[in-house]
């Protein structure tokens, strides 16, 4: 710290360095507390990784490491094909969600027609429908059209669940684009559809990224829909893992290894697109 | 960019007469485009959410085991009210509500810490938010090991000399629910912290400064100035937390307890799955789903009302 000047000082000036020292001490405490919380939040991931590299016996004794967990996992679970299934289901669902939410979001924000406000409210109100409330009829309906023997049934359910919020988010974003811009493009003879495609859509890339990241994490991490609407051969990694843990007793290290593999893609996406995820969450606050 | 070039062309608008006719034609095209573009989303919502919810209401008034359905009407609901299982399941949902003050209070404190913007706060924010990206399945797997009889929790208890408190939490009905609630609180930390941090960023720093000049202590500033200004955000986080507690814990329950022991951790959402898909009682499952739906609507409406009454308008 700077040494105290030799010249006499006013009381206020005397207080300042002491205040700074106190502030420093306080910051130290704050840092320590935050670090402690970080340990609590990160420990499970360390535990996961640490115990994935063990045999069941090593796990029971809390010592020693080996690759047994991983070999067991690949023996018990078709990891590669389930990762691929996850990718397929996520990609298809997100593509459809983006298609319907960007178009509708644009229409609700910029192409208002009589009753469009009510229709928008209807779409957003669908946010309130919990999956569990509709899952039985949904299952019956999709089974009737034999859609539960392919990826498509699950994809449709994910689309239904993702559309209301995605549409809300896109509409909120498009509202921020000036009306004059759209009008001008239309006056220039682009037509509303092409104005949407060539002007509004490129402008909304940040919102599209937000929807994509939110939906990717949601769908990748989902269990219930996949469990009911996908056949074992089409199971996503998350569903496969849960089924493994509920079914035959496998070694815990294998489950830890599986947990790790299934978590990595979503974590990577999170680390890269964190900003978008946070924006998606806070946009939901209706502001 | 072509967008900015497009701007002036509007200033050079066509003469008034032509413009009027053009306008109405444009308005018609605009309406058509609006309906056309919003149609897919509306179709998805009606076909895959609206129709099923209506069907669920119908199913809930039948006894349906997947083969034969018998109409019993609204008395299905009064029947449920006399069913001890219904109350047991509802009790679990009620008890889960007790986790909400912790799931909101702890993040509020954590957000206040982060908001000091001490070195590394961005890193910590990322770390706290990390569980948001991880599936409940994975979280449940680890929690299962944490609460196990020979797991970390009991080991820590022994280490700090509280060995007599060691317990197999997942073996008891109430304690299993507590274990579930703790896991839930842990994984909500990031989400709620982000909400409060966003809220704190909107606060006017001069207000805090003024309070400090007035001689209020840090704690007083937090409770008397910051917290009241964050009311909206607390409400929002309450709704998110409540919705999660009631309708996002299926995977966690599936992996950690399977609803047990007994009905110890069977909440409404889990019972829908149990009765509908494990026992093939579609009617009962649908009924519990509708009860859950009604609870969600009530929460949603209360929230909407709160927002409206404060701002004078919602969206």
In short:
Chain A is an all-alpha fold.
H/E element string of chain A?
HHHHHHHHHHHHH
Helical content of chain B (DSSP H or I, runs of 4+): over 70%
Helix content of chain A: over 70%
CATH homologous superfamily descriptor of the largest domain in chain A? MetI-like
Number of helices of chain A: 13
Q: Low-confidence segments of chain B, ≥5 residues, pLDDT <50?
A: 1-18
Class by helix and strand content of chain B? mainly alpha
Written as H for each helix and E for each strand, in order along the chain, the element string of chain B is HHEEHHHHHHHHHHHHH
Q: What is the average per-residue confidence, as pLDDT of chain A, rounded to a whole number?
A: 86
For the largest beta-sheet of chain B, the strand count, sense and barrel status come to: 2 strands, antiparallel
* Major beta-sheet overview of chain A: none
Total helix count of chain B?
A: 15
What gap, in angstroms, lies between the N and C termini of chain A? 45 Å
CATH topology of the largest domain in chain A: MetI-like fold
Strand elements of chain B, count? 2
- Quaternary assembly: heterodimer
CATH structural class of the largest domain in chain B = Mainly Alpha
CATH architecture of the largest domain in chain A: Orthogonal Bundle
Greatest contact between two chains: A-B, 101 and 100 residues
Q: What structural class results from the helix and strand content of chain A? A: mainly alpha
β-strand percent of chain A reads under 5%
